[in-house]
Amino acid sequence: MRYTRLLQASQFTAYHGTQNPNLQLTANWLYLITDFDMAKNYAQGYLFNYDLQEGETPYVYTMSVQIDKPLNLRNPEMWEKYGNYLDDVDLPAILPELKEQGYDGIIYEEDNGANGFIVFNAQKQCKILKKQEVEPYY
Fold this sequence. Notes:
The protein is α+β, with helices and mostly antiparallel strands. The protein is 26% helix and 30% strand. The chain has helices spanning 3-8, 36-44, 76-82, 91-100, 122-125, and strands at residues 11-18, 30-33, 59-66, 70-72, 105-109, 115-119, 126-133.
């Protein structure tokens, strides 16, 4: 899906990889990506050199996502200001500021060119369409 199309259309399909078999959309934020294989790699632990533990099963959730006003980190000026805050530790520090500015999500580019997203209210902005168990990566 082209990035310009994503900015014009506020609803799109994206993926979330996890080891959680019962994903609840209650978190303050949720990471998503438009590349199924990258979501699968995340679920398998491959991207972060994380070895799945005995009994852990990787899943990819396909979701319908609604983002009306994303902060565009493809803009170099915005990346310079906010690009270092995309992890679970630092993101809470900037969420209040971004919400106050009217943003309901973040769009950024992954290393492989896929669109990455963070939604700020998964319960309202995401709908799970499908849960798919994927092969573990050991």
